[in-house]
Write a structure and sequence with these properties.
The chain contains one helix and 16 strands. By secondary structure, the protein is mainly β. It is elongated and about 65 Å long. The N and C termini lie far apart (54 Å). The relative contact order is 0.19.
Length: 295
Amino acid sequence: MLATLVITSSSVCATDIEPRSYSNIPVGVNFLLAGYAYTKGNVTFAPSVPIENGKMEIHSSFLAYVRSLDLWGKSGKVDIILPQAWLSGQADVLRQQKSREISGFADPLFRLYLNLYGAPALSMKEFARYRQDTIIGASLAVSPPGGQYDPQKLVNIGTNRWTIKPEIGLSKAWGPLIGEFAAGVFVFTDNDQPFLAKTQEQAPLYNFQGHLIYSFGSGIWGALDANYYTGGRVTRDDKTADNLQQNWRVGATLSFPLNQQNSIKISGNTVVHARTDSFFDTIGITWQYRWGEGL
């Protein structure tokens, strides 16, 4: 028997590692994004489940729409993300190797950003004179249970629950160098149809990420990324597992334009410390097309 394996977006849930989330952009600009990511690594399970040596490979893709907004004179944006995943995995179950392959849509994601300080809402013409100093912002992400899920199956892509993540971010510029830090918490509703159980709860998962971003000019920028998350202990039918997460990931991002409206972003990250021994690597590529007033 395999425990439910949950995959969302282009990586494992609660491992956000996205630079420039709190940068300022002109009002009224639209972005269409399409991306692909490949993830490979180890999976750990609760000690109460007779499973060892879990390994997985995930091919995931997403389609997203982003629009910049004027929110009471402050800049903001809204994201709509539709992910899909193809997963294959294997593990030793009661000392017998079992495998499974599955594909389908993951839970969608809706996210709203608001820059509270240092990033006023500007038109394209006004934005040409803008120079960043310090930005303080906040965001709220909501992920409803819209992905593939079957409580009778051993592996699922969707979560069969709601996930809500409030976050606060700080971005500070020193010429072409930007330091960015964000702190947030994932809050989960209960899964009332878990595999081989009546209820499954998960404690809040606290997420911290930091980035050093450097602009090389001509629209080219790179970033060094770090992510730490802790918490998220799972309780199944009133039995709490010893699966407290205390994990570190590091990575890098490079973005460059193809022309005025198209750009490519390449990223990669790896787990460097994991209390639960969940070590995995992810590489991805994203194409972005933008349009709007003044472009």
